[in-house]
């Protein structure tokens, strides 16, 4: 039996573990956090990723955790409503698309892999490839040997750094930073996303159906001196400086970030690599081809990537060279199509001037009354739909029907 170590218990890692287990591999997942992470923002599952969820037999569970968002309201610095939009249209969703909290999705996937070994509170310190396997040194636990190692450990992947070299050369920044954290429920409206735009800066806050708290989102140009991604105090200071003097409820939201247990602040970046594997070590999801939050497709890339990688390795009989080569050939066009969405989407997420904000507000007000409204909506969602379906999923060998965990 092929032993596979997966680094990261977010979305890509547990999804990959699910499929590897179904194909007869023996996966182990190591996660730096001491327990499954509950935080995170709401994420979309659409197109090919929905097909993957269906093949796992998890669609019903995922759909039960839909955020239930129904309206987006745009407000000015005084909190007055400027325009409204259907939440699904704002998120580029249509049909069976699902919006779910990232923590809920991760929990569903982890529970579906109940017989997989999860090692929490540890991480990989060193990798040594030799004939027939990979010797893994852990920060806390004893060394272990695996047949394959897969990095599913995000934008700042440890596996990528150890196997391919310093990560900065693979990161392509989009010139903006994003912050996400939990705030008290009273800052949001249930099932409503409140958005406030100022030149170069955007703030949003929302509360999903039945949620005991709300989530805040901040978008701004990247600071001249970017704080280290592990220095939370410096990150909070950078965010406060970027939004100094902002109106609406920004001062209150910034004050609340000090108590947020899940504060996140990082550059909007994409991972661009010429190859996603070296020997017996490979990458999946954000670690290998992160598209940035601006794409709206990071979760879908992780789910599809996990399926394609596991299927390709199974077809190759566990031969890593052949399996990784097939995986890359199948995934490259899909990754490229989804990464291209990011810059286009970012232009509409952060507006550069008051004139642009006024024009966007005017269009939002007029849209419900404009002739050809349905055609306009289709043009808005078409790029996302094309990218989300820009792959033909291979059949899963040996799996005629989906089986839930």
Automatic annotation (TrEMBL):
Name assigned to this protein: 2-polyprenyl-6-methoxyphenol hydroxylase
Domain FAD-binding: from-to ranges: 2-339
GO molecular function: FAD binding
Annotated SUPFAM superfamilies: FAD/NAD(P)-binding domain (SSF51905)
InterPro entries noted in UniProt: FAD-bd (IPR002938), FAD/NAD-bd_sf (IPR036188), FAD_aromatic-hydroxylase (IPR051704)
Top-rank taxon, per record: Bacteria
Any one Pfam family match given in the protein's UniProt record, by short name: FAD_binding_3
């Amino acid at each position: 039996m092929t032993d596979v170590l997966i680094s990261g218990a977010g979305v890509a890692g547990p999804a990959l573990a699910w499929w590897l287990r179904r194909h007869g591999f023996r996966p182990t997942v190591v996660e730096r956090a001491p327990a499954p992470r509950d935080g995170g923002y709401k994420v979309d599952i659409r197109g090919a990723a929905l097909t993957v969820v269906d093949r796992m037999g998890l669609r019903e569970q995922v759909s039960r955790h839909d955020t239930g968002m129904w309206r987006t309201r745009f407000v000015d610095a005084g909190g007055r409503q400027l325009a409204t939009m259907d939440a699904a249209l704002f998120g580029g969703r249509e049909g069976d698309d699902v919006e779910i909290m990232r923590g809920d999705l991760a929990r569903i996937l982890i529970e579906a892999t109940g017989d997989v070994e999860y090692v929490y509170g540890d991480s990989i310190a060193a990798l040594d490839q030799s004939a027939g396997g990979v010797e893994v040194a852990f920060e806390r636990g004893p060394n272990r040997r695996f047949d394959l190692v897969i990095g599913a450990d995000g934008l700042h992947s440890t596996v990528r750094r150890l196997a391919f070299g310093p990560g900065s050369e693979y990161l392509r920044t989009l010139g903006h930073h994003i912050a996400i954290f939990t705030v008290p429920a009273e800052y949001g409206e249930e099932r409503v996303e409140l958005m406030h735009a100022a030149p170069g800066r955007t703030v949003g806050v929302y509360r999903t159906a039945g949620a005991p708290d709300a989530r805040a989102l901040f978008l701004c140009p990247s600071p001249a001196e970017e704080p280290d991604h592990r220095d939370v105090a410096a990150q909070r200071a950078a965010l406060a400086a970027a939004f100094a003097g902002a109106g609406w409820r920004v001062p209150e939201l910034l004050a609340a970030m000090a108590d947020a247990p899940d504060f996140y602040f990082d550059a909007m970046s994409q991972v661009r690599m010429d190859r996603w594997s070296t020997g017996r070590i490979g990458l999946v999801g954000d670690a290998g081809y992160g598209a940035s939050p601006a794409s709206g497709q990071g979760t879908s890339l992780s789910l599809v990537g996990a399926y394609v990688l596991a299927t390709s390795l199974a077809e190759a009989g566990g031969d890593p060279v052949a399996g990784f080569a097939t995986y890359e050939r199948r995934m490259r066009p899909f990754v490229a199509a989804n990464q291209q969405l990011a810059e286009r989407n970012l232009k509409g997420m952060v507006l550069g001037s008051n004139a642009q904000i006024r024009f966007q507000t005017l269009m939002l007000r007029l849209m419900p009354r404009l002739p050809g409204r349905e055609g306009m909506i289709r043009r808005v969602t078409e790029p996302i739909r094309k990218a989300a379906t820009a792959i033909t999923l291979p059949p899963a060998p040996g799996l005629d029907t989906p089986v839930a965990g």
